[in-house]
């Protein structure tokens, strides 16, 4: 944990969805697709409308089909079993903000997972889990990946874009020094020389040099556009001209709300299918930024949020459970609606994203019931799939057997 007053939040896994998905480009009016979903809706186990902060338990949970009938693919189930097992150390200890499970509920499955043969992984999920739908079960799924951009540890010609660690003067306001946020937390900012709390430097101010010369640089990027998108992703790799690789991850941000530049481009008529317009994909947005450098720089500054990084060591990017995330197996969720660590079965109109996933991550743009962001790993193929991922369908949360009966008794 950081020192007093400094808040380290999870990486912004999935914020790329705010740039790439059609939902974002439409202004994110509804995060749950409208229309009917496959299969009947079971009677709600927990009826009623949400009261206070929305959670799965308050939104309503329905019993889904039997797990054994879902037809898990052996290869997909095997990877999901490994991913689930890696999550168990945290899953059996942390509180579930969705209100669906208790740490002890997961103990039987986790005890069996470590010794379960990978070749029989589908039977593991059928044995220990039952399925549930949150709300109407209609799912919307986007994608994210671990980007790799040109970057070095030390500044050199061609590598002039600073990558900063979390500044020590970025703190939460003390009670009484500022108005609390809607969620009750104090806002992020800094105290000036007179001891007055104020907002922290925004993207434009930081790019203009407010943090220069303070020894906060942990690396230098070659391309400001690529670095902008790496900030959205929240983690990635810097590859130097000598082939060296430095992995960096999200350490915090400056306290400003995220603004999706894709939605701004749409409002300005820059995105669409007409001549002269650009695709709403990540690739299309980047094309506009490169072809219009001055306008693009100003557009990026409309997103006043700025992300700070830390150097990472270990097997891969670390998600909200504080365990490494796994490409084609980890999915980011809103933990108010899906227990972190829970398996999730997605039946989508995109075959490559359908199947078993494990909820190991969160993201600033991943909010609400049945909103997911699938992680595809690193490399060109991961970038291609994640950049164009926009899938709809049905989501089933896998809960330890007996959970739904217990919740029914609490009505």
UniProtKB/TrEMBL annotation:
It is an enzyme of class 4 (lyase). InterPro entries: 3D_dom, MltA, MltA_B, RlpA-like_sf. Residues 148-310 form the Lytic transglycosylase MltA domain. It comes from the Bacteria. The keyword Lyase applies. It catalyses: Exolytic cleavage of the (1->4)-beta-glycosidic linkage between N-acetylmuramic acid (MurNAc) and N-acetylglucosamine (GlcNAc) residues in peptidoglycan, from either the reducing or the non-reducing ends of the peptidoglycan chains, with concomitant formation of a 1,6-anhydrobond in the MurNAc residue. Its EC number is 4.2.2.n1. GO terms for cellular component: outer membrane. It holds the Pfam family MltA. Keywords: Cell wall biogenesis/degradation, Lyase. GO terms for biological process: cell wall organization; peptidoglycan catabolic process; peptidoglycan turnover. GO terms for molecular function: hydrolase activity, hydrolyzing O-glycosyl compounds; peptidoglycan lytic transglycosylase activity. This is peptidoglycan lytic exotransglycosylase. It comes from Novosphingobium hassiacum. The lineage of its organism: Bacteria, Pseudomonadati, Pseudomonadota, Alphaproteobacteria, Sphingomonadales.
